[in-house]
Design goal:
Blueprint (H helix, E strand, L loop, with lengths): L30 E5 L3 E6 L7 E4 L2 E5 L6 E5 L1 H5 L1 H6 E2 L2 E2 L2 E2 L2 H14 L11 E5 L5 H14 L4 E6 H9 L10 E6 L4 E7 L2 E2 L5 E3 L3 H15 L6 H4 L2 H11 L6 H8 L12 H45 L6 H10 L5 H22 L23 H47 L1 H29 L5 H14 L26 H7 L3 H21 L9 H6 L3 H6 L5 H4 L13 H7 L14 H10 L3 H8 L2 E4 L8 H10 L10 E3 L6 H10 L11 E3 H7 L17
Parallel strand pairs: 1-9, 9-10, 11-15, 15-16
Antiparallel strand pairs: 1-2, 2-3, 4-5, 4-6, 7-8, 10-17, 11-12, 12-13, 12-14
Helix pairs in contact: 5-25, 6-8, 6-21, 10-12, 13-14, 14-17, 15-16
């Protein structure tokens, strides 16, 4: 059953951060900083209630109201509209290169902890990216020792500290496992044997939570190109919320696609009998409204044709009262080429009106024939009043004869229709299959004709299409059709006999891009055929009618991008809704098939296969016993069984495999560093501590190799 969710509301201003005023500067308690690209977590190593957490965003802008420079960090950036546009992170992807943003974050953290002195006399343990660049580390080291004068700093890898924290009871030299770290801008796989990470066999995938949210937003923008709230969809926090809330891994992505290929699998809900009846009633009402609208349009067209006919008749009648030159000017003003063209237009309109009125005219009672006594009296025997009465009777006699003739024609047509219906009924009874095949063939022919007409209309809307270019050539030919320059010429000159054949007027249909009369006739024939097939052919249903075919999308497309009926569209919130279906599994699948998201790299399954394949059988078993998942994106549902299924395919069936998720994937790195900072081993060169003397002697890119940090590689 589907549910409707609302995007989270923008944050509002909360209580201001209260800085600690009880700092005395005498304690040597380590400060623990998890410098993530999304969140900045900091606190004392001894505090029990966890770290302080702020979004790792800094905004510097000039306030329009006070005309002063303002520097905001953390939650305050999302509250101030001006700040959101100027927000920056210390990181660009996986690389730390914005020293000003990092300095603002560290200032905020130290002030929040109550350190308002010129120096920070506390050792610091701080996270950095796996195999970080020496340039990024130099920025941090220079800031720590030159700006804050810290006594020492230890750099740790967040995933390794989370791994150690979750295996705390296990001795360090017995910690084996395969650490999968899902970060904001990358995903890394680190094999650990005997508590020591094997960096030579570590691999990194340049796809993380940021790329996943961007990929989801791009899929939705492609699916809804005209979404009215596209600016809200493009906000990073909304894309992140969508993928974190609704995404999930598929145990078998191809099987999931096959399941979603069944439209019933994507059905919004199973409808009850009452709901189905209500839906049928709404469709019936919608059909009735469409019929009324079509009748109204036909009536408007008929009225317009009657007005046009009256104007043309008045124009022709004016010929008797004016000279030929004035009449020619009137024809030119009406955009009519000649008097013959005027007569042709009048004939065509009269025929159209006759056909339309004949279809809707009620039966008249003509049993009593009227009398017209003055018609046989010579004009010489009548006075002026008698002549007027004779003319009136003559007109009424003509109208009466016309009605009689129309009635006779209707009777003949009715008899012909009855005879045709009788023959068709006889054909249906004698050979039902042949009758049904003939009607279905006629139906398919007319439907193909209608589809071709719709296709031509679509082609004419494209300026560069072949149909539109042919239309323009026809127009150019008509404008340069061997006519001399415009000048006064006698009526009847240059007569090219255009219009003598009804086919001559097809050129106007080609230029106009349609033929409304023939289209209406085809629709009427289709309706007649469909009525007979629906009445007698059990294999012909409403879904086979042209009305259903012309408005129907495939069931899969409707499930992928649901369409709403007119009643639902009356709700203004409907057009702001998006349907999430295949995207929920497609976005997480990019971790295993990065090419889907445009990343030219091996997938997570292939990376794990290559890493395990580079170890001996015994070491593979040791690694498989503890596959550890860390990082925020590791909380996406079904990741554990998917990794288990991936590793299971690479090892013998009886191999013991365990896939574990961090207790708190977002905070365990900080807790691991805080726990390590309280041990006696912390603060020694063997555990990665870089003192100020080391900095002054070896430089800013100095690093010590230890089990929780990066290797001493010069990059």
């Amino acid at each position: 059953m589907s549910e409707v969710y609302n995007l989270p509301e923008p944050p509002v201003a909360g209580d201001p951060v209260v800085f600690n005023s009880n700092y005395d500067g005498g304690s040597n308690t380590p400060i623990v900083i998890d410098n993530g690209s999304t969140f900045f977590r900091y606190g004392w190593a001894t505090q029990e209630n966890g770290p302080y957490v702020q979004p790792n965003l800094v905004a510097k802008f000039r306030d329009k109201r006070s005309n002063r420079q303002v520097l905001l960090f953390g939650d305050s950036v999302d509250v101030e509209p001006q700040a959101r546009a100027a927000a920056k992170s210390p990181y660009e992807g996986d690389h730390l290169n914005n020293s000003e943003a990092l300095e603002a974050a560290l200032d905020f953290a130290f002030l929040h902890l109550g350190i308002d002195t010129s120096t920070v006399d506390h050792p610091i343990i701080m996270t950095e990216r796996l195999c970080t660049l020496s340039q990024s580390r130099s920025i941090v080291s220079e800031m720590m020792f030159e700006l804050y004068s810290v006594p020492g700093v230890t750099y740790a890898v967040d995933s390794l500290m989370s791994f150690a924290y979750n295996l705390a009871p296990v001795p360090a030299d017995r910690r084996d496992g395969l650490v999968l770290s899902f970060n904001t801008a990358s995903t890394s796989v680190v094999p650990v044997l005997g508590g020591v990470p094997i960096y030579s066999k570590t691999r990194r995938l340049p796809f993380g939570g940021l790329q996943a949210s961007q990929y989801l937003v791009k899929l939705l923008q492609l699916k809804y190109p005209n979404f009215p709230a596209a600016n809200l969809l493009a906000l990073p926090q909304n894309g992140t919320w969508l993928y974190q809330t609704f995404s999930e891994f598929s145990l078998d992505y191809k099987d999931t696609l096959r399941r979603l290929n069944d439209p019933d699998a994507q059905a919004e809900k199973i409808k009850t009998e009452e709901e189905l009846a209500a839906l049928a009633e709404r469709r019936k009402e919608s059909g009735r409204r469409l019929q009324e609208e079509a009748a109204r349009r036909r009536a408007e067209k008929l009225q317009q044709k009657e007005r046009d006919l009256e104007e043309l008749l008045a124009l022709r009648k004016s010929k008797d009262d004016e000279d030929e030159e004035a009449f020619a000017e009137k024809l030119e003003e009406a955009d009519i080429e000649s008097e013959k063209a005027l007569d042709d237009l009048i004939k065509k309109l009269e025929a159209d009106l006759k056909r339309a009125k004949k279809k809707d005219a009620p039966e008249e009672d003509l049993t009593e024939e009227p009398t017209f006594p003055l018609l046989d009296v010579p004009d010489e025997e009548l006075d002026e009043e008698g002549l007027k009465e004779k003319r009136r009777q003559k007109l009424n006699k003509g109208l009466y004869d016309t009605r009689v003739r129309m009635k006779e024609e209707k009777a003949k047509e009715k008899a012909a229709a009855e005879e045709e219906a009788r023959q068709e009924e006889q054909e249906r009874e004698n050979d039902f299959d042949a009758w049904s095949a003939r009607l279905r063939s006629d139906h398919e022919r007319l439907a193909a004709k209608m589809r071709e007409r719709e296709k031509r209309k679509a082609e004419l809307s494209d300026r560069k299409s072949a149909a539109n270019q042919a239309r323009m050539r026809n127009i150019a030919t008509l404008t340069t059709d061997q006519l001399p320059p415009r000048k006064r010429r006698k009526r009847g000159d240059d007569d090219d006999d255009f219009g003598m054949d009804d086919a001559d007027f097809d050129i106007y249909r080609e230029i106009g891009g349609g033929d409304g009369l023939s289209e209406e006739e085809d629709l009427n024939q289709l309706k007649s055929i469909e009525t007979r097939l629906l009445a007698h052919d059990p294999n012909f249903s409403v879904s086979n009618t042209w009305a259903s075919i012309s408005t129907r999308k495939s069931a899969l497309i409707r499930a992928f991008c649901p369409a709403y009926d007119a009643e639902a569209m009356q709700d203004p919130t409907t057009k702001y809704q998006m349907a999430l279906n295949v995207e929920r599994w497609k976005v997480p699948e990019a971790w295993f098939t990065p090419s889907m998201a445009g990343v030219d790299c091996a997938g997570l399954g292939e990376i794990i296969s290559n890493i395990l394949g580079s170890f001996t059988v015994q070491d593979r078993v040791r690694l498989a016993r503890n596959v550890f998942l860390a990082g925020g994106p590791s909380q996406i549902p079904n990741l554990q069984p998917r990794i288990l299924s991936t590793v299971r395919q690479l090892l013998p069936p009886d191999t013991e495999i365990s896939v574990k998720l961090a207790q708190n994937p977002q905070l365990d790195a900080w807790y691991g560093m805080a726990e390590f900072a309280r041990t006696p081993e912390f603060g020694t060169p063997a555990t990665g501590m870089i003192s100020k003397a080391d900095y002054e002697e070896y430089g800013a890119d100095r690093i010590r190799t230890w089990w929780g940090g990066n290797p001493n590689y010069v990059i």
